[in-house]
Amino acid sequence: MLKASNCYRNNRVGGLLLILWVSASLCRLQAQNSPFKPHYVNMTEVGGLFGRVVYDVRWSAPLVQEVQNRLSLTIQTFNGVQLKPRLAVGATVGVDWYKTALLTPIAAGVRYDLVSTPKNVHLFGTLDAGYGFNWLQVDGTGYDTKGGMMLNPGLGLKFAFKSGSAMLLSLTYKRQEAKVTKPLGWQEVEKWEDRTYNRMALRLGFMF
Fold this sequence. Notes:
By secondary structure, the protein is α+β, with helices and mostly antiparallel strands. It has one helix and nine strands.
């Protein structure tokens, strides 16, 4: 009787372990085969715009040109839909503080994961294309600053957390056009300046 009881107990324990193993396997299989559902995604970043400017020195003869480094603050937020595991599309709104212009770019945006690693580090491509508005700009007397077309392609790293959020580090090239009307001088009919801001943007942010 003792041997039969031990055998029955071992069979019951073995059966229980088998049921647990099968249940765990089914759960993993269901998780792997569960369809992807599009969802809202937000990427908010802050950083700097780095560039060099060549300009003419006034009242110099012969004409003298100088070169200066520029560093400006940039903030942007991308709001969109994660259409596929690697692809997100949406709209980007930002604020860029140039030396004499404060522009608000609004653009269509795309984010695409290029490479993923087992440690949840993703290399992604980013592209924004739109228009920079002068809504927040305050001009001095006689000046009128207008925005223009904006293009911002680049690459970034996404450090994903288990919660689904991630830390972002991106490096992009930003091209922003602008036009400034200036006060008229003696016998001048019109006076304006076309500007093209070419900057490298280094940003740090988070994805939710």
